[in-house]
Amino acid sequence: MLITARNIIKSYGKKQVLKGLDLEIEKGSMVAYLGTNGAGKSTTINILSGLLALDSGQVIRDKHLKMGMVFQDSVLDGELSVAANLKNRLHMYKAADKDWLKHLIEITKIQPILKQKYQSLSGGQKRRVDIVRALINKPDILFLDEPTTGLDIQSRELIWYLFNTLQKEEGLTIFLTTHYLEEAETADKVYVIDNGNILASGKPSQLIADYAKSQLILEMTSAEAMPEQEFIELEPGRYFIEGLKTQEVITLLNQYQKEISSFSFQEGTLNEAFLTLTGKEIQA
Question: For each of the chain's 284 residues, which pLDDT tens digit applies?
């Protein structure tokens, strides 16, 4: 494991914000950390990265681990150009690699904005520059706190394309928080935190299977032809059932295809799983 956290406890004054967390971050993986505002997400990132001391527990990091951070608020100089900001950051590292910076500029598609002042950029452009800044030292893991919040759909898609490219081609480990749960469905592992406690963790597909219910509506030619499953009759000839797995639905449709005049099927989502676990919806 790149990072292992055991029984992490953290309080601010009398308020305990992390209540015995256990986390594992595998090398080369993408981990999505989900929770509502105030759940403890930013505190967790700050502890895992070493920016914040914990009250008790243990964080074990891989030896010689290099980390990059993208904060919700940028740390770059708004009055300087993008190029000047990145040049300044490059000079902060002894093992600076100009070719690596050039590669980052290419894959993030920020060449056209290098001469612009950072403060003049759009939200999506700033976020891409922030990501380049965080990757200059060739980190093993990149921490991102709400990297796509407030961005338009096109910018969000470009950011996620960048994440997937860096993970697959560069072997980068990514740990991020996000308000957009559909984005987290592409992660290798998801943690759901609420009120300082980890409620569930696992592959997105597993969390969806365990905590989100599918919905199937059938319109039948006759009531006598109804399958054995416990359907709810919405109206004569129209029936509803939830919780079937996709393969079960396929089997049912094949078995009763002559008696089914039409159907609609909606798989469970990570958003539904989150709502089941926490009883809350994430607000962006």
Answer: 999 999 999 999 999 999 999 999 999 999 999 998 888 999 999 999 999 999 999 999 988 899 999 988 888 999 999 999 999 999 988 777 899 999 999 999 999 999 999 999 999 999 999 999 999 999 999 999 989 888 888 888 888 989 999 999 889 999 999 888 888 999 999 999 999 999 999 999 999 988 888 889 999 887 666 776 778 888 888 888 888 877 888 888 998 888 889 999 988 889 989 999 998 776 65
- Domains annotated on the chain, with CATH: 3-207 (3.40.50.300), 213-267 (3.30.70)
Instruction: Give the Cα separation of 209 and 36 in Å (integer).
Output: 21
Is the dihedral angle over the CA atoms 29, 41, 36, 160 positive or is it negative?
negative
How many angstroms separate the CA atoms of 22 and 191, rounded?
10
Q: Are strands 215-220 and 197-202 parallel, antiparallel or unpaired?
A: unpaired
Which tokens sit at 61? 């990091």
- Residue 191 in 3-state DSSP? strand
H helix runs in 50-122, sequence order: 82-90, 98-107
In this prediction the pTM is 0.85
Q: Which of 88, 94, 168 is nearest to 129 (CA)?
A: 88
70: phi > 0 → left, psi -120 to 50 → alpha, else beta; which?
beta
Q: DSSP secondary-structure letter at 103?
A: H
Q: What is the distance, to the nearest Å, from the Cα of residue 6 to the centroid of all Cα atoms in its chain?
A: 21
Nearest-CA neighbor of 218 among 249, 179, 176? Answer: 249
